[in-house]
Design brief:
By secondary structure, this protein is α+β, with helices and mostly antiparallel strands. It has helices at 5-9, 16-27, 129-136, 140-159; strands at 33-35, 43-47, 50-57, 62-64, 73-78, 80-85, 88-93, 96-99, 107-110, 114-121. The protein has a single domain (5-159), classed as Sandwich (Jelly Rolls). The chain has a five-stranded mixed beta sheet with strand order 1-4-9-6-7, covered by helices on one side. A hairpin with a 2-residue loop joins β2 and β3 (50-57).
């Protein structure tokens, strides 16, 4: 089964964020998938009032980003991806750009190797990465804990 098909197997009554949590809990242990955490290789840089995060992913890789607490710009610098949305899949080919809103969460499957950047306003010029990360993103444990809870609740419901 394609790992992203797992999201379609989630109970239909779940909200989109809960479906993402369900997917994260299901695929977290699978090779070739990643729920963003502190071990994820991200290059950090600063340009004027911007804090920029850049990373590379191989082809055929599933990435679930942390929940965005603030909106920001996302740029696909190199490669092609599918991005899952509540209304279906969207294909992005570099160069491409989008702007996220608070509460947004990226669910990406790479088609080719990619390089992506997120650009975050940083008018105070903060250089403390941990502080910036906590300002812009919910911790990864939140989605994994919610997903595990949903899977457990659904298993109990199915047993009845």
């Amino acid at each position: 089964m394609n790992e992203l098909a797992i999201i379609e197997s989630a109970p239909k009554e779940l909200s989109w964020p809960d479906k993402i949590a369900w997917l994260a809990a299901k695929i977290a242990p699978l090779e070739g998938s990643k729920v963003e955490d502190d071990d994820f290789e991200i290059r950090h840089s600063f340009k004027g009032v911007w804090y920029i995060r850049e990373f590379d992913l191989p082809a055929d890789y599933i990435f679930i980003g942390r929940t965005h607490l603030l909106g920001h710009i996302v740029k696909l610098i190199r490669g092609t991806t599918w991005v899952e949305t509540p209304t279906g899949r969207v294909r992005y080919c570099a160069p491409a750009m989008t702007h996220t809103q608070p509460g947004h969460q990226m669910v990406v499957q790479t088609i080719t190797p990619i390089t992506a950047q997120s650009w975050h306003l940083n008018p105070d010029g903060c250089r403390d990465i941990a502080e910036l990360e906590s300002e812009y993103f919910a911790p990864p444990s939140v989605i994994l804990q919610r997903g595990a809870q949903l899977i457990q609740e659904t298993a109990k419901w199915l047993e009845q």
